[in-house]
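ok so i was messing around last nite and threw this chain in just to see what happens. nothing serious, just curious
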Amino acid sequence: MLVIVKDSYEELSREAAEIVSNRLRKKPNLVLGLATGSSPIGLYTELIRMHRDEGLDFSKVTSFNLDEYVGLPSTHDQSYHYFMRKHFFDHVNVQPRFIHIPNGMSKDVNAFCDWYEDQILTFGGIDLQVLGVGSNGHIAFNEPGSSLGSRTRIKTLTFKTRDANSRFFEKMEEVPKYAITMGVGTIMDAKEILLVANGKGKADAIKAAVEGPLTAMCPASIIQMHKSAILVVDKEAASKLEGEYVDSWKTVIFD
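result:
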C-alpha cells in the first residue's frame, strides 16, 4: 500500500489526476472504474483541465461506475448518472457507448448485476479503480458487515449513510434506501486501486483502512490485501494515523 499525504484538497486532487493521466497515457484504452461523492470531484475537475489544456484523450476509455441508487431515473439530479455527466462525462471526449453505470431502474436487478459483472470481464477487467470512502469505512455502497468476497448486487443502505446523503435531498424520506453496488470482491479484482479522501470526517475511516484490523466492519480495510493500492489523502484525513512512518508528515508514506 502506498499512502500519499498532501497539504490540501486541491493538491491531493492534482496528485490523483496525475496518477490517472499517467496510466491513461500508457494505455489509451484504459478500463477505468469511477466513483461518485464529494472526494473525487476535484480529481475529475483536474482531468477535465488536462483534457482541455493538454489534450488528455479519453476517446478509447471504457468506464464502469461503482454504484447507483435504486429507484432514481438517470435524469434525476441526485442520480449518479446525472452526477457523472455534470462533473465529468459532459466535459471530456469519452464515448457514450463505453460508459457503464448501474441501472437503478432495472426491472430485474439480480439479472442486471450478473450482466454488469460479465461486462467488466468482457472488457478485460478494471485497470484502475477510483474509490472514495465513507466515514464508516464503506467503499462504494458496501456497508459495514458486507462480505469481503461480495460481487455486484443490491444493498440496503444504513441510516448513517442515508443521513450523510440526506443533504442532497429536500427531506430524509426522499433518500433512497437501496442501491446497486459493485461488491468488495469486484473492487479487489481491479489491477490497481486509487482511493482519495479529504477532511477530518474521513480520519477515522482512513486510520481503520490503513492501520486497523482487516474486518468486514470496515470494508475499506480490505485494501490492505491489494497488491497495488494507492491512497491520496490530505493532512486532515491522515491526522489519526499513528505509525512510525508518519513522522514529520512525510509527503509520501510507504507501508
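not much to say yet. The domain at 9-200 is CATH 3.40.50.1360 (Rossmann fold).
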